[in-house]
Design brief:
The chain is an alpha+beta fold. Helix content is 45%, strand content 15%. The longest helix is centred in the middle third of the chain and has 34 residues, at 82-115. It is globular and about 45 Å long.
Length: 173
């Protein structure tokens, strides 16, 4: 699948088959996330791979009972590594660049998952402290996105998007 097909086919998936993700596919997905651009090439993020059922259930509970998270065979937690980014960029690295780095990597993972025939959904609604505890995040590392990954039960239809004319702004003021 080429990039444009993957972008067009990507959907948010809330129901997963009880089928494991092949190690080769997971490896390809993680390698692709690792190739994402980052501020100063510092790669100010970590990716926590969660396959343990109890931890997936805990993540679902910490995500305000989004139980479908625990259905996915693999859950990736993308974390901002503020200390890594702060080495070069100080406060801006801590507050912004590390978060951007993690979310760019997550976006790459979503598109590659789609290209590999897998489904994902970006989860941003969760209790930060609970998730950080579940993944044993050290000081300065914080979860910014949770990405369940697996084979989807049904291929959902595209959802409506904004018209480009309403999206593109030449000048704000």
């Amino acid at each position: 699948m080429d990039l444009f097909d993957a972008i067009g086919k990507r959907r948010s998936i809330w129901a997963y088959e009880n089928k494991p993700v092949e190690k080769e596919k997971l490896q390809k997905l993680l390698e692709s996330a690792n190739s994402a651009p980052s501020a100063g090439n510092l790669q100010g993020y970590d990716i926590v791979v969660v396959e343990d059922q109890k931890r997936k259930e805990a993540l679902a509970e910490a995500s305000w009972e989004q139980d479908f998270i625990a259905q996915a065979p693999v859950v990736l937690v993308f974390c901002a590594d503020a200390p890594r980014s702060a080495k070069k960029y100080e406060g801006r690295g801590t507050e912004l660049y590390s978060v951007q780095d993690a979310t760019i990597a997550c976006s790459y993972a979503q598109l590659v998952a789609t290209a590999l025939g897998l489904g994902t959904v970006w989860i941003g609604a969760f209790e930060d402290e609970k998730v950080n505890k579940i993944i044993n995040a050290p000081e300065g590392i914080r979860a910014v996105a949770i990405l369940p990954v697996g084979y989807y039960l049904k291929d959902p239809s595209p959802r409506p998007r904004r018209d480009l004319k309403s999206l593109i702004v030449k000048e704000h003021f």
